[in-house]
Design goal:
The complex is a heterodimer of chains A (about 300) and B (about 270). By secondary structure, chain A is an alpha/beta fold. In chain A, about 35% of the residues lie in helices and about 30% in strands. Chain A folds into two domains: about 220 residues, P-loop containing nucleotide triphosphate hydrolases (Rossmann fold); about 60 residues, Alpha-Beta Plaits (2-Layer Sandwich), CATH 3.30.70. In chain A, the strands form three sheets. Chain A has a six-stranded mixed β-sheet with strand order 7-8-9-4-10-11, with helices on both faces. In chain A, strands 1, 2, 3, 5 and 6 form a five-stranded antiparallel β-sheet that branches. Chain A has a four-stranded antiparallel β-sheet with strand order 13-14-12-15, covered by helices on one side. The two termini of chain A are about 30 Å apart. A two-stranded antiparallel ribbon of chain B has the order 1-2. In chain B, strand 1 and strand 2 form a beta hairpin. Chain B contains ten helices and two strands, in the order H-H-H-H-H-H-E-E-H-H-H-H. Chain B has one domain. Classes of the chains: A alpha/beta (about 300), B mainly alpha (about 270). At the A-B interface, helix 3 of A face helix 1 and helix 5 of B.
Chain lengths: ~300, ~270
């Protein structure tokens, strides 16, 4: 759905985005992670043809961007760095206006019905007549999302979509996006919030100072640490039994470097060591991202 | 897209506030004239103002003469400066572009909506002034006297008023194009409007400077009041035609520059 090759954006002496090769496949929920200022938004803007790349190629929905903008963009629902709306018009009027700004002629009744549908989908009241300047940040964010959904696009490109939402709102949006994804929509989601990406994504890319330092399917992430955590009242016995393999001990917990927890458990129990808990230690996304970012640091 | 822009223009509070403001000065002038009966001596002051005391139906022309040199251009600068920069400020430019609306179509739609605004504003000023003239000012009927002194028939007068109206609208094309260009160059609508007004002030200052004689024919404000020539007998076309050509030249150059600047600009906001 999205492929880039050596995509680069330079501003005078700074490389805001430095030769990145993105690969987003159909059906993915792609989490695009990176600290603020790492180049996420610039990348999104290049994919949408708002910013012209200095070097490299971008292919979106099988066509080259920005050359094919006219046929690609109608099939993308986008939310770029905060929503935008005409402040003196209602949410409904805003959606109608944007939808009629371009694209094929849509019958008025059909458009009105679709506007109500998407407003309902994002949890806004379709009969709200207040101008959007009276909206809270969270409501505006929902309206922006509604705008992205208007044309039932096969690809959603969403930059920080849960910005400004309360925890309940974040959950609503997450469920909405996951539902759309189950129905076949590919979602490209940028965020600086690890937890958000971890809960939703099937694939992630990590951007650090303009460079893509990690790109992987979630399932293929190297979560194994080769460590097993054992809780036992017989710490001393454990350490002497496994001398050399114990990495760390603290109170009644021992960290053992060993491949297979089952073998370890068998060995401990056979030697008469009582085991309260035993489990392999996994790395979280946070550690993996931090590790990738650190190796990339100059 | 043009329809969308027109509907946006008509639904914006700014449009109507500006039009009300435009009508304020002619209305004040009409009231003062009606109360005091003191007009400027013939040949001084804004065009036609001395004539309206006897014939109130001329007041629309006088009103256009009052708003044309300052208020109408300021209004066009404000509305035009808002064209692209205003979309940036409401965070809506990027959403229009990813719809997608092509950048050329957006500029054309914006320019069209500015011109539509000028037509609307001029019409409202003329209509309000007509009503005011009828109600408050001179009731003299019978032949209207041309600027040259001979009498004009009702039909001649109607035709020429129509032409004057068109001329006033055309006279604003240059301002509209300058405002549009500046609007693509900055993210601040106010800066674009002030820049445009600065341009107009500079043009007016140069018009008053003898040393600038050689550049005067090319100044954007030079032929603005030439619509008065339409009421001479016979019509003196030279300046009117110059005026229209000058405006078209400004339109081509500045709208072209706006397109050149906007077509490849990074939209970072």
């Amino acid at each position: 759905m999205i492929r880039t090759q050596g995509l680069t954006k330079s501003y005078r002496h700074v490389r805001a985005v430095d030769s990145i090769d993105l690969d987003v496949r159909e059906g993915d929920v792609y989490g695009f992670l990176g600290a603020n200022g790492s180049g996420k938004t610039t990348t999104v803007r290049m994919l949408l043809g708002l910013v012209l790349a200095s070097q490299g190629e971008a292919e979106v929905l099988g066509e080259s961007m920005p050359r094919a903008a006219k046929s690609v963009l109608p099939r993308i629902g986008a939310l770029v760095e905060g929503p935008g709306a005409y402040p003196h018009l209602s949410g409904r009027a805003n959606l109608t206006l944007f939808d009629s700004a371009s694209g094929p002629r849509v019958r008025r009744a059909a458009r009105r019905a679709r506007v109500r549908e998407v407003l309902d989908q994002v949890g806004l009241d379709p009969d709200d007549k207040r101008p959007t300047k009276a909206y809270s940040l969270g409501m505006r964010q929902r309206l922006g999302l509604a705008g992205a959904l208007m044309r039932r696009p096969p690809l959603l490109v969403l930059d920080e979509p849960t910005n400004g939402l309360d925890p309940q709102g974040i959950r609503d949006i997450r469920e909405l996006l996951l539902g759309l994804n189950r129905a076949g929509t590919t979602v490209f989601l940028s965020s600086h919030l690890l937890a958000e990406i971890e809960q939703m994504s099937t694939r992630i890319g990590v951007l650090d100072r303009g460079r893509l330092v990690l790109q992987s399917d979630m399932a293929a992430l190297p979560t194994e640490t080769g460590l097993v955590r054992v809780r036992t009242p017989d710490v001393a016995a454990t350490v002497s039994l496994l001398d050399g393999r114990v990495e760390h001990r603290e109170d009644d917990v021992v960290l053992v470097r060993i491949e297979d927890p089952a073998t370890l458990n068998h060995r401990l129990v056979s030697a008469g060591v009582r085991v309260r808990e035993i489990a392999p230690v996994h790395r979280g996304l946070e550690e993996i991202v931090l590790a990738a970012t650190e190796t990339a640091a100059p | 897209m043009i329809r969308v822009e027109l509907s946006k223009m008509l639904r914006r509070p700014l449009t109507w506030v500006t039009i009300v403001a435009l009508n304020a000065l002619p209305t004040l002038v009409a009231v003062l004239l009606a109360l005091t009966d003191i007009g400027p001596r013939p040949g001084t002051g804004p065009p036609f103002l001395s004539a309206v005391l006897t014939d109130g139906t001329l007041f629309p022309l006088a009103a256009l003469g009052i708003v044309l040199p300052l208020f109408l251009p300021v209004a066009v600068a404000v509305v035009g400066g808002d064209a692209i920069a205003g979309e940036v400020q409401s965070d809506t430019l990027r959403y229009l572009l990813v719809r997608p609306v092509s950048r050329l179509r957006l500029l054309v739609a914006k320019l069209t909506s500015i011109i539509a605004f000028v037509v609307l504003a001029t019409l409202v000023v003329a209509l309000v002034a007509y009503v005011e003239g009828k109600l408050l000012l001179g009731k003299a009927t019978g032949g209207v006297v041309s600027v040259s002194g001979s009498a004009l028939t009702q039909t001649q007068m109607a035709e020429r008023t129509g032409m004057a109206f068109v001329y006033v609208v055309l006279a604003m094309l240059g301002v509209a194009a300058i405002a549009l260009l500046l609007s693509t160059m900055t993210d601040s609508a106010v800066a674009a409007a002030l820049g445009t007004i600065g341009f107009l002030v500079a043009s007016t200052v140069l018009l008053g400077l003898d040393a600038a004689e050689s550049v005067k024919p090319y100044l954007v404000t030079r032929y603005w009041l030439s619509f008065v020539d339409l009421f001479r007998d016979p019509i003196r076309w030279t300046d009117v035609i110059h005026g229209v050509l000058a405006q078209l030249a400004y339109l081509v150059v500045f709208a072209g520059a706006a397109w050149a600047n906007f077509a490849t600009r990074d939209v970072n906001r």
